[in-house]
Amino acid sequence: MREKEEKILEILQRLAEASACGALIVVEGKKDVETLRKFGVEGEIITAKTGGQSLLDVVREISKKGRREVILLLDHDRRGKQLISMLKQRFERQDITPNTIFWSELFRLVGKEVKDVEGLASYMETLNSKVSGNS
Q1: Residue 19 binned pLDDT confidence (cut-offs 50, 70, 90)
Q2: Which listed residue, of 24, 60, 99, 123, carries a Cα 20 to 30 Å from 69's Cα?
């Protein structure tokens, strides 16, 4: 369990570093942003599902920022996977590279135990207490 916890923290650290270097991150909602902030991600994070914006509005907003790569970190449920697929297509048409590596790595580790970004915080707390209890 400690190894899993360390791998997740390592991915989140790399995400924080990418964000600090200017990578733009797209999540679904405000709670996802709050969760990433708890893990030290301080760069720009845009929400795909708030403020009544359409997906096209979100893509336009990101396109205006002139970034060549965007990290997609949406929920790992049916809706999140659909959003990733739609965003990937739209970004590629705008010559913006959609990065789903962090998304794939994180959700491969947590499996079916976590379905959304906001659930990572409580999952990590649970994992930490189990690891501490086993020490």
Answers
A1: very high
A2: 123
Check which CATH number belongs to the domain holding 79 and give it.
Answer: 3.40.1360.10
Where are the strands (E) in 14-87, listed by range? 24-27, 45-47, 69-72
Q: Express each pLDDT in 100-127 by its tens digit.
A: 999 999 999 998 899 999 999 999 999 8
Question: Which residue has 């893990």 as its token pair?
Answer: 39
- Tell me the pLDDT tens digit for each residue of 23-35: 999 999 999 999 9
58 lies in which domain range?
2-111
Return the beta strands (E) in the chain as ranges. 24-27, 45-47, 69-72, 97-99
Q: Dump strand ranges (E) for 24-64.
A: 24-27, 45-47
The verdict on residue 20 lying in a domain is yes
Q: Determine whether 109 is exposed, middle or buried from the number of CB atoms within 10 Å of its CB (0-12, 13-18, 19+).
A: middle
Domains in the chain, number = 1
Q: Are 27 and 36 in contact (CB under 8 A)?
A: yes
Let me know if residue 62 belongs to a domain.
yes
Over range 123-133, report the average pLDDT. 87
